[in-house]
Amino acid sequence: MSGEVAARLAELGLTLPEVVPPLAAYQPAVRSGQYVFTSGQLPMVDGKLPATGKVGAEVTPEQAKDLARVCALNALAAVKSVTGDLDRIARVVKVTGFVASAPSFTGQPGVVNGASELLGEVLGGKGVHARSAVGVAVLPLDAPVEVELQVELLP
User: Fold this and answer.
1) Are 118 and 69 in contact (CB under 8 A)?
2) Could you give the count of Cα atoms lying within 13 Å of 155 in the half-sphere of its Cβ?
3) Measured between alpha carbons, how far is 44 from 151 in angstroms, rounded to an integer?
4) Distance of CA 46 to CAs 21, 73, 78, Å?
5) Where are the beta strands (DSSP E) in the chain?
6) If DSSP codes are grouped into helix, strand and coil, which group holds residue 54?
7) CA-CA distance, 77 to 99, in Å (whole number)?
8) HSE of 62 in the Cβ direction (CA atoms, 13 Å)?
9) How many helices (H) and strands (E) does the chain have?
10) Strand ranges (DSSP E) for 22-77?
11) Which pTM was predicted?
């Protein structure tokens, strides 16, 4: 891994993980023209979820925010898997975050900030994006959070 994004990851003490294998019949990321769309990325670390359950019950908002960072890092790995180089990113266009939420939990935007902030740290101005943060009843494997990206590539 070389280039500006790789250098920034190293500077932040982050390592781009291997692409998380799909859990079903889909690809981790697909390129269409100048855009890459990632599938929803769970906060998998070495093939495992570091935490499970609902945010606001079994998982604290702070833990979930950290897990959203992991999701964003996994999404960047998925982008790299189809582009070969993260320096090809012109900008992150849209982030969608899903938060498995206890019934009374309403802090989804704060949780998804974990992903948004990581993208800003790694990509600078190219990481500024539109976003949705959605509370859901349950996510695959009882994950607390899932994040997907839409990325525009340089021509």
Assistant:
1) yes
2) 0
3) 21
4) 11, 13, 15
5) 29-32, 35-38, 89-100, 130-136, 145-153
6) coil
7) 21
8) 0
9) 3, 5
10) 29-32, 35-38
11) 0.96
pLDDT tens column, 11-37: 999 999 999 989 899 999 999 999 999
pLDDT in tens, 123-143: 999 999 999 999 999 999 999
Pull the structure tokens for residue 65: 């925010």
- 98: β partners: 134, 146
How many residues are listed for the chain in this entry?
Answer: 155
Determine the 3-state secondary structure of 16 from DSSP.
Answer: coil
Q: For residue 46, how many C-alpha atoms fall within 13 Å in the half-sphere facing its CB?
A: 2
In this structure, the strands spanning 145-153 and 35-38 are antiparallel
Tokens for 138, please give them.
Answer: 């349950």
**Burial (0-12, 13-18, 19+ Cβ within 10 Å), 25:** exposed
Q: What DSSP line would sit under 100-117, residue for residue?
A: EB-TT---HHHHHHHHHH
Hey, CA dihedral for 5, 20, 83, 98, is it positive or negative? Answer: negative
